[in-house]
Amino acid sequence: MKTNTHADAMKDDKIAAIGIGAMIVFIALILVAAVAAAVIIQTAEKLQQNAQTAGDDTADEMSGKIMINTAYVGTGSAAANTDEYHLVVRLAPGSDPTPATGISFQVFCANGIVEGTLATTDVHVMETEVDITGNLQVGVGYIVYVDADDGATDCGPDAVSTSQLYLHVLNGGTTYETLTVDDTSPGALVV
Among residues 27, 55, 66, 145, which is most buried (max CB within 10 A)? Predict the structure, then answer.
C-alpha cells in the first residue's frame, strides 16, 4: 500500500505552476494595455489641442476682417482724389472693434507697389462722413480713402486700368480685391 504524503503531492502538482504562468501573462497583458491606453489618450489630447489652435487661428482670421462692399474713383474737388480709391467697407460679422491705424494696405499695379497704413482721417462713418474717433465697429458702414500714389509709384485710377488691393488688419485677416478702372471720372465704380 502506497501512502501519499504531503511532499509527494507538492512534487506532482502541475496545476499550480500553470496558474502562476497564467497570472504572469495576465499581468503582462494589463501592463501592455495600460501603455497602449496612455499612448491613445496622449494622442487624443494632442489632436484636440491642435484642433483648438487651428480653430482659434481661424476665428482670429475671420474676426478681424474687412469686407469691401464697393469701391470707386476718389471724389471731391481736390485733384489728388483721382489718385485715391474710396472704399465702402464693413467689419466682418463677429469682428472685434478695430482701430483705423491697425489697418494697412497694399496696392499692386503695373507701375509697382504702394503701401501704407490708414490714419483716422482716412476712415469716415458712412452715414455722417465724419472721421472716426475710436475703433471701427461691426454693423457700421465706413468710407475708406486709400491713396494709391506715394510720390514714387502711382497705382491710382488715373494711372492704371487694373490693380490689386490688399487690406491687412493687425492681428486679423487680409482682404483682397481686384480694382478695374474703366472710367477715371470721380465716383466711377472700380469694383
Answer: 66
